[in-house]
Design a protein that fits this description.
- The structure is a homodimer.
- By secondary structure, chain A is an alpha+beta fold.
- Chain A has 2 domains: about 150 residues, Nucleoside Triphosphate Pyrophosphohydrolase (Alpha-Beta Complex); about 70 residues, Orthogonal Bundle (Arc Repressor Mutant, subunit A).
- Chain A is about 30% helix and about 25% strand.
- Chain A contains 6 helices and 9 strands.
- In chain A, strands 1, 2, 3, 4, 5, 6 and 7 form a 7-stranded mixed sheet that branches. Chain A has a two-stranded antiparallel ribbon with strand order 8-9.
- The first copy, chain A, is elongated, with a radius of gyration of 21 Å.
- Chains A and B meet through helix 1 and strand 5 of A and helix 1 and strand 5 of B.
- The first copy, chain A, binds a DNA duplex (27 and 27 nucleotides) through helix 5.
Amino acid sequence: MPGQYLAAMYTYQYPRPALTVDCVIFGLGDESLKVLLIQRAHDPFAGRWAFPGGFVDMDEPTETAARRELWEETGIEDMFMEQLYTFSAVDRDPRERVVSVAYFALVKLANYKVTPGSDAQRAEWFPVSQLPPLAFDHDEIFKVALARLKGKVRYQPIGFELLPEKFTLGQLQRMYELILGRELDKRNFRKKILGMGLLLPLPERQKGVSHRAATLYQFDRAKYKALEASGFMFEI
Amino acid sequence: MPGQYLAAMYTYQYPRPALTVDCVIFGLGDESLKVLLIQRAHDPFAGRWAFPGGFVDMDEPTETAARRELWEETGIEDMFMEQLYTFSAVDRDPRERVVSVAYFALVKLANYKVTPGSDAQRAEWFPVSQLPPLAFDHDEIFKVALARLKGKVRYQPIGFELLPEKFTLGQLQRMYELILGRELDKRNFRKKILGMGLLLPLPERQKGVSHRAATLYQFDRAKYKALEASGFMFEI
DNA sequence: CCAAAAGTGTTCTTTATACACCCATGT
DNA sequence: ACATGGGTGTATAAAGAACACTTTTGG
């Protein structure tokens, strides 16, 4: 990184904000949409809950920083992630000027059933409708993240990131109902989603349920890519 | 700003990326959608065109920085602006690590007909289909900005920000056609947009045109706010 | 046999699309 | 008179919304 020296030559005279990342991770519980929070060990806001995050290193882009922090703090990796928004209010951190690039992630909660927490830190999944008061401006970050999820889930097939690889149409519909906050008509839903031709029915069926076993489906990513390229628009 | 002292106490040991803003400003010409570029006076990329932008001060949020830089470099103010994306590739600036928060702005070009340029800098409006090679990663920033504009203009009434306060339905339709890159049916377009009840017909008509004078309309922002709050979705 | 979710079609309403001619104005 | 864009309605097709019963499985 020759930049280190050049930085001094060109710009050392200007103070710079600190740069951090914060991650809003959504997971799908049995009865609610959830987000992962970490309890802060130190001041400011010691004891309060906050989204996992941390400082951006000089040799990594912000998304890499977000994935690294998430892995360090929770052990979660390889999830769907996209940039959410950059929060830069001058007083958002009481210590000093900190600008934070927030990320928005979706995980298959079944893969992380046990409450995460690698350091001494406590991490816990909270239903989105029952969040404790959050540190810093994380309440605002959460609002933006939830709005993004609700807005996006209808027009891009990101909802599948919350489900296991193999899922039933019932699970899929419940996922949409939980996120959108309203009920969907079962027959119309199935007609629409199957009509897209993006769900591969598997030769397997659900097991161990005390009712008729449902067909398992898989989302056909390759087919979606192809259709998307030729102008197809996903919509629920 | 007590943060200045605290910053030294807590975090002076970590190097920080520089933080800048860049603004992609769209305006509507007679025959094309345009963006404002500034020709760089100094290295790196001396002589190349780039989006206006600059460093974020310690006492201003990024959007304020974007508006300030834009005013300083072009004299444009009070335009529609929203955050676009934060670009953080490690080598995006050859001198040192610079993270840039890009903004996306829409202006009523008629108000800025003369080529702007307040400093010694040259500023010019370029049709989006004929951009010169840009400095830094600004080609990528532009791609993201144009995609955002195309995607958003259909679902939010931001297109009006590109037109004068009073406009004809012909101007409105041409605006959508230029941005979306396809022709719209005149009768269907009028039926749809007038059907929303968001356009106030004015008792005035177009003047000095060598054809039948069109009715002038105004976008009813108050009514849109009300409808939006009760679940109405704008769509072209 | 009961509970619980899976699975399945049709009707009606709403919205989208395709399409052609006369009108007003300035040159 | 002609060139230019303004202004108007209808018919057809497609998509969305509403709606109820039978099937399968485990307990």
